[in-house]
Amino acid sequence: MAEAKLKDIEEPAGDVVIRLAGISKYFSVVPALTDVTVDFHAGEVHAILGENGAGKSTLMNIISGTLRPTDGEISFDGEPISQMTPDMAKARGIGICFQHPAILEDLSILENLRVALPSSLFAGREAHGVASDILATMGLKVPLRMRADGLTVAQKHLFEIAKALALKPKVLILDEPTASLDQESTDMLFDRIREVAAAGTSVIYITHRLAELRQIAQRVTVLRDGRVRGGAMVRDVSDTELVNMIVGRTLKAAFPPKAQAASAETGLSVAGITTGDLKDISFDVQRGEIVGIAGVAGNGQPELMRVLAGLVPAAGTITLRGQSLDQRALLRAAAFMPSDRHVEGVASGLTVRENATYSALEKFAVGGIMSRTRELDQVRSIFADLAVKTPGLEAPILALSGGNQQKVVMSRALLSDPGLIVADEPTQGVDVGARFEIYRILREVSDAGTPVVVNSSDAVELEGLCDKVIVLSRGQIVETLVGSEVTEGRIVAAAVNATTHVGEAPKAPASTAGTFRHLLQSDNAPAIPLAIVTILLGLYVYSQNENFFSVYNIYNIFLLATALGFIAMGQTVALLMGGIDLSVGPLAGFLVVVASFFINDDQSTGVMLAGFLLMFAGAVVTGAVNGLLIRFANFTPIAATLAMYIAIQGFSFLLRDNPDGYINTTVTDWINWQWGPFPVAFLVLVAFTLGGEYLLRRSRMGWRLRAVGSDEHSARRAGIQVNRTYVAGYILCSLLTGLGAIMLMTQIGVGDPRQGVNYTLASITAVVLGGTSLSGGRGTFIGTLLGAILLTEVLNAVTFLGLTQTYQYFFQGILVVVAALVYSGIRRRAAQGGA
What we know:
By secondary structure, this protein is an alpha/beta fold.
């Protein structure tokens, strides 16, 4: 069948679409690519092979415009391009699917599509219909309103591919597209690749799996150490020759020898393991055995691995060397190698050395004191065994290629001297040479007496590595293969021919359950408990003092909440981007001081209008400087805005060292105009809130703002101008603070350099109460408005209850802590419901 498919695509190559001539790329003085020359033809699938760190990703980033070559020339359709950019690449029809999908997890599925794809794709058509058609190309059936963090690793890869295919690209770059896919999804992907190639698309296919070349590729180019080591038509080159070009040596065997005879000693015994997705799982691992877990994706394999690692509670017993272990003991005894190394495998803020050793620090201690020499010796030793390629032990972990990051994860597992190895897709995204090293290490660990359990979607890998294979279907064991029975054919047949069924609990009607789950998952979910708390607090204070609900007091609460509300809305913008703005309080006070020179009783209307313009001009300048310092001067948001906090406060005292410059009373009366119990300015704030919420959810500007805070790297790969968005966001933050300053101006009525500072902490408190994430990507203007009202109500209630000012800070702190606990609980339950 594979041969037939190969013949179907072996037509004469079309015109050269992309030509790379003499491409070199240096990082400092370290060469990543050296004199690479290669052509990519229309209608042809061209595979790029090479070990991790060979330069494949660098080459693809140069083609897509993410990186600029140090030397060499790129030609597109015969036209030389001096400097390819991401926008230029997208305009010319170059689509790329990254090995680690550019998914914005805090945005919904539909929002991910809208922000990453051109608006013209949705023009004149209903957005949900377009999105459903895009997902259908890769067989994805997921709710469009679901947040993208609810997708599995495999679904994220399919989603990334579907986005690229939606562009109908002239050049399609696929970087390890099948790393997380099962056989059915892989076959579907290959069908789509054949379709687009037949339509004239040039497909550049990066893979570590030699077997895939025979199914999908026509031509292959091999990179090693940043240089082209060879290239040929796939039909004209053998696997042995390819491996020799990839690793620079010939691998005598793909897998180490298996255990010669099963030991009578049982290292691990699993009995009756049952969870929501697993039912009565039982098996033994004898000494010297490697046991594999197989099955079609979605049948409980990942959950079983997490149970064995102590990460998920389960009924049943797990016995290690005769000792029954509970979940906590399993956590200590097992070394877990997760399939998604970016989410669970590596700590992105740590170095290579720290990632390799943080779970085994006690091993390197002498008398309770860390021995750096012992730590370095062991790290270097295991890195040598696994052939980890790193610019240095103190380099950032993200500086390594994906496969080398996976090797560091394995190094950490081995350095901790575990009682059990639980490896979930251990060779995902790892090159041919490194796979052999991982197989060898796992076999050596098993021979030494440590039980090893491996989950893999690659039946060939299970056949070559494992002594026993447990096949799961719908959370149950359908077949156990031992010894000579462990073959690719038997594994696949057992998985696809299974007829097991698992009873499901009755579910609520889809419309009701889906709507409720979506509400819990939405950013506006915190607004509900916040509104309830606000009402209950008001009723309680009213029961103690009937004047609390007087028209005057309600007006006063809303008027004070308006100034805080506008400033907190600006703070929300900063936090949505993953930043923070400590300068909003002093900025509000500074703008009032500026206004006090122009908006006075003895000034003309023109002068007063100039005062308002100067206030907003000052806000724009402040926001722009904050954004530029953060994006181009490498200041952290805290450092940049703290520096601005100090500078603005100093400017305020330079302008006025004491309160002076009384604000025009007519202006104050107009701004504080009352309609019933409500200030009109508060109604304006409500309108701003609803408009901002609409833009946040329904406009490209809002999606980009949230995308930057969700994942800056993925946002950039999705084509978002991150720097421009960030600077614009800080300008918007300051402009909203300017509106808050106008309200503050009418409340204090004088230019006072000491006023406004407290609004920094108050704005952050209101935003946190509203449920906006401090890590960016998730937030709501509605929640911020309610947070500002509740905070103002608390301060007002303290007075009505006759309490001291100490209680104001006490109650604020209690509210923030309770809000954090409630919102984290809501999101945890929502995530469980979505799963």
